Amino acid sequence: MDFFYFGNPHPSHDHLHNMPPSSPEIALSDYLLLDDFLDHHHGHSLSSQSTESSEKATFTDSTHGFTTGATSKNNTNNNIKCKNGISESKARLGPRIAFRTKSELEIMDDGYKWRKYGKKSVKSNTNLRNYYKCSSGGCSVKKRVERDREDSSYVITTYEGVHNHESPFTTYYSPISFLHSDDSTCSK
DNA sequence: CGGATTTGACCTGCGC
DNA sequence: GCGCAGGTCAAATCCG
């Protein structure tokens, strides 16, 4: 089981900077560290497992690896597709990371460009689940976005895989600079 | 017109 | 083997 302190500042900062002036307040509230955990607990337990006091997340090297590693690419290349490519989806793309965000918006700009490829209602959650793929060529990272079953004001975002490219966001915001700066000092 | 989104169909895995 | 649930595909549609 992979453990990650999911404290990558990119999602929150980028999101906040890209919010329109009229957007409702959004606060990162819960970071969920999971891999196989997700397979057994689904959305319902996710919310109950999360902690309300985890606003301060730790930014670690593993998080950096999350953005720059190449394992997902290798996995994809080595995988043998069935005729419609579904087997690719069954192979693990890499670490799976989920976090819960209090937001009225489901789409959070995390610095990457995502293409929506599916929407589904699932039994474990009365809300619809949206499926996204990274739209960067050769990058097979996926994410699922769904509203918390018990509290629809929260959005559960699950990332699966590792980006094999830099976020376009890093052109303007270096991770290093984030590590050494206050939140309040972030600006474009 | 090209890229993004929608949505029904299809596929796979799993439990019974 | 069958049915269900979750995940993905791809044609149709939308939108800038």
Automatic annotation (TrEMBL):
Recorded GO CC terms: nucleus
Keywords, sorted A to Z: DNA-binding, Nucleus, Transcription, Transcription regulation
Alphabetized PROSITE patterns for the sequence: WRKY
Entries under SMART domains matching the protein: WRKY
InterPro entries (UniProt xref): WRKY_dom, WRKY_dom_sf, WRKY_plant
Biased segments, Low complexity type: 73-83
Domain of life: Eukaryota
Region (Disordered): 44-83
Domain WRKY residue range list: 103-168
Gene3D superfamilies to which the protein is assigned, alphabetical: WRKY domain
Molecular function as annotated in GO: DNA-binding transcription factor activity; sequence-specific DNA binding
Primary location class: nucleus
Segments of skewed composition (Polar residues): 56-72
Localization annotation: Nucleus
The protein's name: WRKY domain-containing protein
The organism of origin for this protein: Phaseolus coccineus (Scarlet runner bean)
